[in-house]
Amino acid sequence: MIAGRKITDESIYGLIYEPEVVPQKPARYKSMYSSNVKEEKKQHKSEHATMGQAKVPLLSPEKFLAKHSKEFKLPAKKQFNYPDQDTCRPLVPMIDDKPVMGLKSNKNFITTNAVENITSIPKKAVPKVVDTRGGDTHPLDASGLAPKYVKKKL
User: Which of 65, 93, 129, 146 could be stapled to 97 by a disulfide with Cβ–Cβ 3.0 to 4.6 Å?
Assistant: First the structure.
């Protein structure tokens, strides 16, 4: 054994040099449309492709390019008004505004409110379901506890 290799088959034929066989590469791919592409490129050539950029007359030195001259300028400010501004309630008075003195109403608000509540029609109770010990309520219709045919009118 020499340096970790085991020599087992010694033969005189192992000394003959054999050239390394290199597999031949296939032919390079060539598109069948390449001639069409070349013709289209010639037809649609840009103006400056062969003759250079178009000649543009230069400005005189008196009309030099000033700083920020090509920047976009915003239009003049306009006063903004809300579209429903005329229907809005009046502003809340400032803390240093004095109230108008001498205004007095003869309306008795307590009796008017009592009469309105007595003559009003009471609201119909909405069926609810209580699902926790804390008293959380949810509408009975959405809970699915009451069948739909019970509410059907005859």
Answer: 93
In the predicted model, residues of the chain with pLDDT beneath 50 are 1
Is 26 strand, coil or helix? coil
User: Rounded to whole angstroms, how far apart are CA atoms 139 and 126?
Assistant: 7
Per-residue pLDDT tens over the stretch 28-68? 999 998 888 888 887 776 666 667 677 788 888 998 888 99
C-beta separation of 129 from 138 below 8 A: yes
| Coil, strand or helix at 142 | helix
Give Cα separations from 50 to 21, 42, 46, 54, 121 (angstroms): 49, 11, 8, 11, 91
Do residues 137 and 130 touch, judged by C-beta distance below 8 A?
Answer: yes
CA 73, 74, 76, 77: dihedral to nearest 10 degrees? Answer: -150
